[in-house]
User: Fold these one by one.
Assistant:
Number 1:
Amino acid sequence: MKFQVVIDRKTQQIICTEMFNGKAHDGTIFKQTTPVNPSILVLGDSGYRGIQKVHPNTLLPIRHKEDIAKLSEEEKAGRKGRNKAISSLRMKIEHVIARIKGKWREDCANLQSQVK
């Protein structure tokens, strides 16, 4: 099972969630879910590679060889700093996802103990 969570980075409010088969690719999930307003900046991890085609206002880390090869020398020199900045912006989002997963695991454990 795989979840996509859309979170307001400033308020940490969950805007929406989607649940998919665990084998679904992150980019596929994004493309099949409710469209995000084009003015909203999407921060994703490298699993969302390719979503810029459907949502140009996207920031993703540059980690794949093909993507690195397309960069100018100046962009290549700044790539690690850019990736770190994106990662730092995503930290609050990752914390919310960790809390959701922790609560879900807790609820599952409670259900299992009730069944026994």
Number 2:
Amino acid sequence: MTAQRHILAIVNGSFQPTEELCGLSAKAISRWVQVNQLDPNSEGVCLLRRAADLLFFLATKSQDQVTVEYESRMKEVATVTEALRLSYNNAMQRSSEDSGR
């Protein structure tokens, strides 16, 4: 849950969307992309979908014994979250530079 809130904060704090992202389900992400007229194949959206897939896996395994695969996916969530943060920060910088021209 903490990772999901962190990802939502990154995405929703990165720009002024028409509609904020309210969850990481496939339907929520698809709706958010459509409403905000984003490129569904952009780096940020692809990273967001990857993070959602990883978190879904972890949520379904949370009651199981911690395995090497679980630990690996936890590390990947951290990596993807950082990549997502960098992607949205870079997009914000490009957007503000374009606005200044």
